[in-house]
Specification:
The structure is a single chain. It is globular, with a radius of gyration of 22 Å. It contains 9 helices and 2 strands. It is mainly alpha-helical. Strand 1 and strand 2 form a beta hairpin. Strands 1-2 form a two-stranded antiparallel sheet.
């Protein structure tokens, strides 16, 4: 393993740790004789995923569609609001306390309102995913814009740049690392919002499957739903990280081991 580069070695160690975790889980369940109504073995969960995937696949597609739709809407709104707040002290003083207050409201409390307004189905799940994604994007974009050095802005104004020119050509590119950091947080929160709404107000989706399975005491199916959600979350997180490396490579550097870190 010493001949491997640090990145490959890290991936192998991560894969080994993951496989070891599931092996220990399997052995612990077998040794203790715990019922699958309490904690199913990984092999039972894998069997459910293999045999029930034709049933689970439409729900998986529904959940990822709902999540991506809500995530895209939340990110779009968050970028616009973050730009406004980060560019204006007056907007910051007025809007930021409102955003903090709104983000403090448990999202489970707003799902019934969405159901009353729009009926049960996909719309409440999309809206829940959207509202839960907005706040981290707003905060990071506003912070990134606010970190533009005043001296740099003064020099650009002396050179004839207008405020919009500074925002578009300097402040926004410098805020991209903050934006992508928020995307990796927001995508996981979007899944939380989607599944939360699906368990309350939907007749399709992984959240709906899990709530029905729990009512039927089908615990392996519940864990299968958790595995699907975890895999989808990791895939979207990796996609966000890939885009971050492609679009903000100028803000990254390599440490002595060859790993990429933020500059």
């Amino acid at each position: 393993m010493n001949a491997l580069n640090p990145q490959t070695r890290q991936r192998l160690l991560s894969a080994t740790a993951l496989i070891g975790f599931f092996v220990l889980w399997e052995l612990a369940c077998l040794a203790s004789g715990v019922s699958d109504l309490i904690l199913p073995r990984p092999s039972q969960i894998a069997d459910v995923l293999w045999t029930k995937m034709p049933l689970l696949w439409p729900h998986t597609v529904q959940t990822i569609y709902t999540t991506l739709t809500g995530f895209a809407l939340g990110v779009s709104i968050g970028i616009v609001v973050g730009m406004i707040i980060g560019s204006s002290k007056l907007a910051y003083d007025v809007a930021y306390p409102l955003l903090v207050g709104f983000s403090s409201i448990p999202k489970v409390a707003v799902v019934p309102l969405f159901v009353v307004w729009f009926g049960a189905g996909t719309v409440p799940a999309v809206l829940t995913s959207m509202v839960i994604s907005i706040f981290p994007v707003v905060v990071n974009v506003a912070t990134g814009l606010a970190n533009t050095e005043p001296e740099l802005e003064d020099v650009l104004r002396v050179l004839g740049a207008k405020k919009l020119d500074i925002l578009w050509n300097v402040s926004l590119p410098r805020a991209l690392p903050y934006l992508f950091a928020s995307l990796k947080i927001a995508i996981t929160l979007a899944f939380v919002g989607t599944v939360l709404a699906e368990t309350v107000a939907a007749n399709k989706g992984i959240g709906n499957v899990m709530i029905i399975a729990s009512g039927n005491f089908d615990v392996p199916m519940v864990f299968a739903g958790l595995v699907i959600l975890a895999v989808m979350g990791v895939m979207l997180y990796v996609a966000s990280a890939f885009l971050e490396r492609r679009m903000t490579g100028w803000a990254q550097r390599k440490d002595s081991s060859g790993s990429v870190v933020m500059a």
